[in-house]
Amino acid sequence: MVIVTGGTGYIGSHTCVELIGNGYEVVILDNLSNSEESVLDSIEEITGTRPQFFNVDIDNATQLAAVFEKIGSQAKSVIHFAAKKAVGESVKEPLAYYRNNLDSLMNILVEMERFQIPNLVFSSSCTVYGQPEVCPVTEATPRKEAESPYGNTKSMCEDIIRDTARAQSLKAISLRYFNPIGAHESAKIGELPVGIPNNLVPYVTQTAAGIRKELTIFGDDYDTEDGTCIRDFIHVVDLGKAHLQALRKLETETIRSSYDIFNIGTGKGSSVLELVNTFKQATGIAINFKVGPRRDGDITAVFADTTKANTVLNWKAELGLEEGLRSSWNWEQNYRSKKA
Ligand code: NAD
Ligand code: UFG
After folding, report:
1. Best of 15, 33, 111, 264 for a ligand 1 pocket test (most atoms within 8 Å of beta carbon)
2. For the residues of 115-176, what is the DSSP string, one character each?
3. Hey, which of 81, 126, 328 would you mutate to test ligand 1's pocket, going by the most ligand atoms within 8 Å of its Cβ?
4. Long-range contacts, stretch 197-200, CB < 8 angstroms, 24+ apart
5. Residue 299 confidence (pLDDT) above 90
6. Which of 70, 149, 215, 236 could form a cystine bridge with 289, CB 3.0-4.6 A?
């Protein structure tokens, strides 16, 4: 059995589909603070299996301990997705972010030790690299001081896991995701941004759907080929598969403790303008856009060297930008039609 915290969320739900499809028994822990319980129906529709679900605030040690009393002794592994993730909000409410993201991880680690659960996969982010001196970035590229409290929680969580694995029986992997996009091909699960999206792809699909009037591209005067920022857009289905491979690696290791980090991206940088043009190729829809000023805190370019994940995890991104954008658009349309 694998415990998936944040399993009704965007990346968690796609990972649950991969896990169930590969024979894992999945138990989801989520407080639904940024997801909907109906995601369980969608997972069941896709896989034919409804995962067991506990509505629990992982930040609350007592509540979490009560859930682990029920399932802890059967679990072999934990994948810890649950976290607050809005960068801007974290600047305004740093304590809420430090409390939720750090306490949740520490509560999970305490329960893992109590029930002798040996394997942990953790959601980290390429945000820990800040603006790297050289792209692509490898796992050996030095981390930079975080731009936001959210980013800082990711660096701090990585360190907490590393130190815990040194001190007790724990095998752990941090996956540093680059920019996740896309949705499951069924269009039954996908990203559910609350309010006006901060991230590029949901803003693009909502503009295509007529919910937003136009996209603002934040700056076209960066030192890149077309002047817009460059990111590594990784399909969420590929991302889900990376978790499966990380889990397989941990579960077959015979050592008592280990800690490792992997970049999870495509290895290819794409510019914001290139993404807007690719959306048109993928869907036939031209996005209304204007160019506005730079957004505070944005870095010029970051993309991954994925050699380590390719060789050690035997994982490679298979889906490209066009497939990611087409699936995001299908999800947006399907979700809106169900809500209408
Ligand atoms: P998401 O918000 O869709 O999913 C996170 C889930 O965690 C939600 O379902 C939410 O309800 C739950 N949650 C939050 N706090 C909780 C708590 N205290 N107790 C129980 N459940 C709680 O986010 P996502 O995009 O799927 O991200 C998953 C993980 O990946 C997060 O740790 C995030 O920081 C990380 N990450 C995301 C991105 C991205 O761009 N989406 C990039 C890098 C890393
Ligand atoms: N952008 C626009 N217009 C928009 C939204 C975004 O031009 O309306 C641009 C941004 O300026 C940036 C690029 O699109 O150049 C990507 O922006 P996102 O907000 O989609 O993603 P970020 O790279 O800023 O950050 C995201 C998450 C972080 C995470 C990081 C790496 O928000 O939490 O990816 O995984 F750490």
Report:
1. 33
2. TT--EEEEEEEGGGG-S-SSSSBPTTSPP---SSHHHHHHHHHHHHHHHHHHHSS-EEEEEE
3. 81
4. 198/86, 198/87, 198/88, 200/231, 200/272, 200/275
5. yes
6. 215
Does 59 sit in the ligand 1 pocket, CB within 6 Å?
yes
| CA distance linking residue 45 with residue 238, whole number of Å | 20
pLDDT of residue 283: 97
Predicted local confidence at residue 178, as pLDDT:
98
CA of 325 to the centre of ligand 1 (A): 21
pLDDT of residue 194: 85
* Residue to substitute in 81, 181, 231 for testing ligand 2 pocket (most ligand atoms within 8 angstroms of CB): 231
pTM: 0.98
Which residues are tagged catalytic? 150
Closest CA to 41 of 81, 71, 8: 8
Question: Residues 194, 190, 57, 105: is their CA dihedral positive or negative?
Answer: negative
CB-ligand 1 contact for 11 (6 Å cutoff): yes
Q: What pLDDT score does 186 carry? A: 97
- The values of phi and psi at residue 245, to 5°, are -70, -40
Task: Locate the domains of the chain by residue range.
Answer: 2-339
Single out the residue of 316, 319, 310, 318 nearest to residue 139, CA to CA. 310
- State the chain's mean pLDDT as an integer: 97
pLDDT reported for residue 200? 98
- Which atom of ligand 1 is nearest to 82's Cα? 7
* Residue range 160-181: mean pLDDT, rounded: 97
With b for 16 or more beta-carbon neighbours within 10 A and e for fewer, the 248-262 pattern comes to ebbeeeeeeeebbbb
298 contacts: CB under 8 Å, gap ≥ 6: 218, 219, 229
- Is residue 58 in contact with ligand 1, taking CB distance under 6 Å? yes
Cα of 200 vs centre of ligand 2, distance in Å, is 6
In ligand 1, the atom with minimum distance to the C-alpha of 13 is 26
